[in-house]
Structures are given as structure tokens and as C-alpha cells.
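Re: that backbone. C-alpha cells:
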């Protein structure tokens, strides 16, 4: 158990069965009445922001989270199977735990990071930079533009990114998955 004196940004609290990460807190001591702490909390699963006020000295439950390396193995239709790199256990997760924006870059054998609470993976974080092969793109024609031209390319996982004209099918490229941006050839 923690009190409001232990509050810090990044702290994770368990409130009403949900996990919230503290984004902002401020101790307030009005001229009249007792002190209190005003906070902004972000739901770890949904990303929704909750504003909540705690009385000074109020006890809260601090959640213990652990980051573990996990490796993506395969998909069996409904579940995505990962292997815990420390215990070699099979972890079955649904697509909503991973997130739709990350699923389009998930590749077999990819090493990820799992956020674990009570021996259960509650969130998966892929690497920021992924290396994927280009499976389909139109041929680039020289002289089409003065500089900086791009074309769409479909990657081996099904994601589509804009690449320079000189990229061809079969080449491996590095992509920043956070903003779907081509970085370089590998």
C-alpha cells in the first residue's frame, strides 16, 4: 500500500480492478480545509484519461508491473502465441491486447516486450524499428519527379508504407512502426 505522499509520475495504481498510470499530480493546500492531491490517470488498457482527487494521506494500491522479453511464434486463427524468453512458457493473447496498429508489423520470430501484472501479460510492445521485406510495389520510373518522390509498398506482414522510387520488390527495409515511416534499406 502507498499513500498520496508516495505519488510520482509513471506510478501505476490499481483502482476498481483497472490499472492506471499516473500522468500528472499536484499537491494542493487550500487556505481553508484539508490538503488534497489532484491527479490525471491514464488507463493502461484503453488509454482513457481519468481525473481524480485524493485526500492527503489516503492509501492507494500500487500495482507491481514487470517487463519481460517475449517472442512471437505463430497465429492459430483467434490467438497469437508468444513464448516467454525466461520461462519458455506459451502465452496466448488476443489481438486487442496487442493492438491493431502493432498487429500489422508483427512477424514470426520477432522479439517483443510484455508488460506483466499478476503473472499475466496485459500489454505487448513491439520494437520501434522493424525490418521487413517488400512483397509488392510498383516499379519506379526515372525522371518522374525532381526529388523526394515516393510510392506505396506492401510489406511481408501486410502493412503498407511510402518508400522512395528506388526500392524494389524483395528488398528488406527498416520501418519506424510508430508513424509508418520508411527509414532505410537493410
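Recovered sequence:
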Amino acid at each position: 500500500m502507498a499513500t498520496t505522499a508516495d505519488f510520482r509520475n509513471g506510478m501505476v495504481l490499481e483502482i476498481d480492478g483497472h490499472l492506471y498510470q499516473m500522468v500528472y499530480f499536484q499537491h494542493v493546500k487550500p487556505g481553508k480545509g484539508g490538503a488534497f492531491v489532484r491527479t490525471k490517470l491514464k488507463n493502461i488498457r484503453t488509454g482513457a484519461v481519468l481525473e481524480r482527487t485524493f485526500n492527503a494521506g489516503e492509501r492507494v494500491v500500487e500495482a507491481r508491473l514487470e517487463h519481460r522479453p517475449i517472442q512471437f511464434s505463430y497465429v492459430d486463427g483467434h490467438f497469437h502465441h508468444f513464448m516467454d524468453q525466461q520461462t519458455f512458457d506459451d502465452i496466448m493473447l488476443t489481438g486487442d491486447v496487442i493492438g491493431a496498429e502493432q498487429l500489422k508489423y508483427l512477424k514470426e520470430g520477432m522479439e517483443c516486450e510484455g508488460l506483466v501484472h499478476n503473472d499475466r501479460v496485459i500489454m505487448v510492445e513491439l520494437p520501434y524499428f522493424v525490418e521487413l521485406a517488400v512483397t509488392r510495389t510498383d516499379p519506379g520510373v526515372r525522371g518522374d519527379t525532381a526529388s523526394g518522390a515516393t510510392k506505396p509498398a506492401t510489406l511481408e506482414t501486410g502493412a503498407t508504407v511510402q518508400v522512395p522510387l528506388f526500392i524494389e520488390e524483395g528488398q528488406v527495409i527498416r520501418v519506424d512502426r510508430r508513424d509508418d515511416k520508411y527509414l532505410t534499406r537493410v
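Helices lie at 95-98, 100-103. The first helix runs from residue 95 to 98.
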